[in-house]
Design a protein that fits this description.
The protein has a single domain, classed as 3-Layer(aba) Sandwich (Rossmann fold). It is built from nine helices and ten strands. By secondary structure, the protein is an alpha/beta fold. The chain is 36% helix and 21% strand. It has a six-stranded parallel sheet, with helices on both faces. A two-stranded antiparallel ribbon has the order 1-2. The protein has a two-stranded antiparallel ribbon with strand order 5-6. α4 runs parallel beside α9 and α7 packs parallel to α8. The model has no long low-confidence stretch (mean pLDDT 98). The longest helix has 16 residues. Bound molecules: dicarbonimidic diamide (C5J). The site of dicarbonimidic diamide has 6 residues, from α7. Dicarbonimidic diamide binds next to α7.
């Protein structure tokens, strides 16, 4: 079985039962001049994930393995956006440089050009931070027979963490790729990754993408 060196220990997986999750690599979060930057964030902290993630996708797709993309956002009438979320993120639904912010169908809501889904790859629209909440992700993974998830995307301490925690509680083993997840805040990136692998891997495993690429190539 393929095995990669990871923290807190080796992560062994079976290519037939492992899916790649690419979380919220959306223009609103990543493009210079977009929503993320308008909040005062340094988008370069997220953009450094694009190149390794594109390389991973190339190899993963060439091996014929499943990819699931997610997008955080809401229906145009915001009926799926809880008032408590809107109160703390009042820009949601407002016009921005890339269309209404985090609204489905808008340019900014979609995935960046470099990482656009191809073929029949699944795209899950999610109203929350976690990819399992109010989506079909559980059913999709069950149908695929997935038992393990390779987790990538943004942001490390928010949607990646929430999804890894949700997945962990549902019995999935998660390997988080540190160079393919990003936070606007270097401190949150560091601590967020530590928290996943702490206490014997309380939420999962952490490694860098080259370790995984090497195993897939074998
Ligand atoms: C945030 C996300 N940070 N995808 N969303 O609001 O992490």
């Amino acid at each position: 079985m393929p095995t990669v060196d990871a923290s807190p220990g080796k992560f062994t997986f079976d290519l037939d039962t492992t899916a790649l999750l690419v979380i919220d690599m959306q223009r609103d979060f990543l493009l210079p001049g977009g929503f993320g930057e308008s909040l005062g964030n340094d988008v370069s902290q997220l953009r450094r994930t694009i190149e390794p993630l594109a390389a991973l996708l190339t190899t993963w797709r060439a091996a014929g393995l499943p990819v699931i993309h997610t997008r955080e956002g809401h229906k145009p009438d915001l009926s799926d956006c809880p008032p408590a979320k809107l109160t703390r993120a009042p820009k949601i639904g407002q016009p921005g440089p890339f269309g209404r912010i985090l609204v489905q169908g808008e340019y900014g809501h979609d995935i960046i050009d470099e990482l656009q889904p191809v073929g029949d790859e699944v795209v899950i629209d999610k109203p929350g931070k976690g990819a399992f909440y109010a989506t079909d992700l559980s059913e999709i993974l069950e149908k695929m027979g997935a038992k393990r998830l390779i987790v990538t995307g943004v942001t490390t301490e928010v949607c990646v963490h929430t999804t890894v925690r949700e997945a962990n509680d549902r019995g999935y083993e998660c390997l988080v790729l540190s160079d393919c997840v990003g936070s606007y805040f270097p401190e949150f990136q560091r601590v967020g990754l530590q928290m996943i692998a702490a206490q014997g891997g309380i939420f999962g495993w952490v490694t860098e993408s080259p370790a995984l690429l090497k195993e897939i190539a074998r």
